[in-house]
Amino acid sequence: MEKKFELTDNFVINALGIKLFQIKCTKAFKYANEGDLGGYVEKEENLSQSGDAWVSGDAWVYGNARVSGDARVYGDAWVSGDAWVSGNARVYGNAQVSGDARVYGDAQVYGDAWVYGNARVSGDARVYGDAWVSGDAQVENDHMHCGFDCFGSCNRHTHAYMTNENKVEIRCGCFRGNIEEFERKVKETHAGTIYEKQYKAIINLIKIKFGIDG
């Protein structure tokens, strides 16, 4: 099989001391022309030589991570560990995918989002902003999660998603927990303020979104 890219002599060294080499397109395909420089990988195995998968911009792929199919990783995104990005998935912006995470289908992870652990993001799901999806979470489509930007005292992103155990988990700043814990935290931290009203409105919408009574 004719290779679609090669490693160049250009490299960067990440915070772990791992040398990442810039790639160069060696034959034209969907996302690159012959001679185009791409992003950075630790080794050839990080990016499939078949299909239209591509790493570009200042994106890094390293460890045992793999990008394949028609997937793209670009911008300042990082894919590391044993993570896989495949299908028609997109990872871009400052997003990170790590651990044993899988991003596939038509899913997109972008902004400052972080997908890690054994998390799965698939279908037409979008994970973005400051959202963290971790553990055994499985986000299959846009009906399985939702997000709210620029609310609260620090204009944070609040992200809610359904776990494999059919529980709604919420990430907001350094908070991570279920919706009942989030309600208690809001009351404890913002009682009597405009921020309590904002978060209560978000909580009500999340309950409607996921069909939670009360």
Q: In brief, what are we looking at here?
A:
This is Polymer-forming cytoskeletal. By secondary structure, the protein is mostly beta strands. The protein contains 2 helices and 22 strands.
How would you describe what is shown here?
By secondary structure, the chain is mainly beta. The chain has helices spanning 179-190, 194-210; strands spanning 5-13, 19-25, 37-41, 54-55, 60-61, 66-67, 72-73, 78-79, 84-85, 90-91, 96-97, 102-103, 108-109, 114-115, 120-121, 126-127, 132-133, 138-139, 145-151, 156-162, 168-172, 175-178. It has an 8-stranded mixed sheet with strand order 1-2-3-5-8-11-14-17, with no helix packed on it. Strands 4-7-10-13-16 form a 5-stranded parallel sheet, with no helix packed on it. The chain is elongated, with a radius of gyration of 19 Å. The model has no long low-confidence stretch (mean pLDDT 89).
Largest sheet: 8 strands, mixed
Q: Strand-and-helix sequence, N→C?
A: EEEEEEEEEEEEEEEEEEEEEEHH
**How many structural domains are formed by the residues?**
2
Radius of gyration from CA coordinates? 19 Å
Name of the CATH class of the largest domain = Mainly Beta
**Uncertain regions spanning at least 5 consecutive residues:** none
E-strand count: 22
Q: Any idea of the CATH topology of the largest domain?
A: UDP N-Acetylglucosamine Acyltransferase, domain 1
- Widest β-sheet, arrangement of strands: 1-2-3-5-8-11-14-17
* CATH hierarchy: architecture of the largest domain: 3 Solenoid
How far is the N terminus from the C terminus?
59 Å
Proportion of β residues? 25-35%
Secondary structural class: mainly beta
Mass-distribution shape: elongated
Count of helices? 2
What is the average of the pLDDT values?
89
Helix content: 10-25%
